[in-house]
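To whoever is covering the structure queue this week,

Two jobs came back overnight. Logging them here so there's a record in the thread.

Job A:
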Amino acid sequence: MKNFVKILGLTLFMVSTLLLSSGCFTGNAASKETAEKFPAFKTVDTNGNAVTEDIFKGKKVTVVNIWGTFCPPCIEEMPSLSAWAKEMPKDAQIIGIVCDSKGASDTKTTAAAVKIMNDAGVKFVNILPDEGIGKYLDNVMAVPTTIFVDGEGNILCKAVVGANVSEYKKRVTEYLK
C-alpha cells in the first residue's frame, strides 16, 4: 500500500509539473473549441486603438496568442513571438489577446501587459477582451493557448496549448502553402 501511495503521489507530481511547464491554468472547466468561427468583436488594443474582427482580413493566417500577465510561460515566449512577428510574410500576422484583462477600463492589467510587451520588444497588436472574446475565452482552460484564424475569421484547427513557438511556425508554414 505504501508503494501505491508513493507511485500515485509521484504520478500526480509529474502530471502537475508537466501541465504547469506547458501553460498556466485560467481556472475554466473545459478546453474545447465551440465554434468554427472566431466571434465578432469590437474592442481596443493595449494602446487604446479600436480593433474589430477586420484585423483578420487580408491575411491567409493570423496566429492568435491568448496569454495572461500572470503566466510565466506566456511571458517567456514573448521575445520569440516578437522576433518571429518581424520576419513573418505579408500574408501572415500575430496578434495577442490579454486574457486576464477585464477590458479597456482595466488599467492595472493593461499596464502590466504593456510592461511585459515592452520588455520583450513586442510590436504586434495585443487586444483586450470584449464580451464576444470573453465568451470564447470561457472555453480556454490554460494559457498560452494559440489558435490560427484565416482572413474570414474561421478557426483553422485545434488550438496549441502551451508555449510552443516551433509548432506555431510549423502550422503557419503549412497554411501558407
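Job B:
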Amino acid sequence: MSVSHTLLAPKVRAPRVEWLLLLVAVIWGGSYSAAKLATAEVPVLQFLLLRFGLTFVLLLPALRHLAGPSWPAALAGAALLGANLLAIFVCETFGVSLTTASNAAFLISLCVAFTPLCEWWLLGDKPSGTTLAAAAVSLLGAGLLAFQHGGALSSLAWGDALMVLAAFLRGVMVCLTRRHGQRHGLPALTMTAVQMGVMTLGCALLMAAFQTPLWVPLPTSTTFWGAMAFLVLLCTVLAFFVQNRAASRTSPSRVALLMGSEPLWGALIAVFWLGEHMALQGWIGGLLIVASAWWVTRPRA
C-alpha cells in the first residue's frame, strides 16, 4: 500500500524528513499494542472489517480515478494485491492476538530477510550469499523469540508462527507489486482504496463463513475506539502518506535505518505500555532480526 507523491508540499528539509520517518516507525511500532488491545474486545475478523471498512470510506474519493478504458485490468490487479494484503493482515492480527505485541513487532521484520528469497522464487533474481546468511541469522533470532517462554506448542507459539507467515507474505507482496502493481496506471492512493475495499469484502465473507455469532456488539470503551482511531487514522492513512512522501526526500540508506527501528519501538511500547515481559533470550533474538534487516538494506559501496 502506498499513497500519492503529490499530496505534500514540495519543499521539505532533510532533517524534517528524517524526523517524519522516525515518527512513522514509532507509529507503526505502536500498532501491535493497539491491535492487541482492540482484539481483546472484539473478534479478529470483526476488528479487521471495522479497520479496513473505515479506511475504505475515508479513501472513497480516490476511486474517481478508476474511470477509463483500462479500468477492468487495473481493478483486477489491485484486487489481487488486496487479496494478498488481506491474507497478511489476517495472519498478523490473529498472530498478535495469540502472542505478545513485542514478539509480533520483531517477527514481522523477518519480511526484510524473506523478500530476497521471494524474489528468487517468483522473479528469478538470485540473492547474494550475504543476503542468504542474513536470512539465516534472522531465522535464528525468530527461534530465540519463539522459544523464550518454553518450547511447548502453546497459543504463544502459534501466534509467533502466524507472524512469521505474515512476514513471508509481505515478501510475496513486494514481488506481486513489482510484477503487477506498476502495470495498471492507477494513482497509488486509488490502488490503496481498491485494496481496502477488497479487504473489507474479504473480511465480511470470512465472518459469514467462520464467525459465530456473526456480529458481536461493539464495545463502548475509550480503549477500543482509541486503538481503532490510532490504527485507521495514524497507522494506515497518515503513516503511509508520510512514509511515501518523505522517503522521496532522503537517501535509501537513511530510510532503511529509520524505518528499521520499527520493531524496537514496537517492543519498547509493548513493554512500557502493556507491561509485557521479554526475557534476555527474546531481546537477543529480536536484535538479531533487526541487525539482519539492517545488513540487508545497508548502502553498498
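Note for Job B: The chain is about 75% helix and 0% strand.

Please reply-all if you pick these up so we don't duplicate work.
Q.
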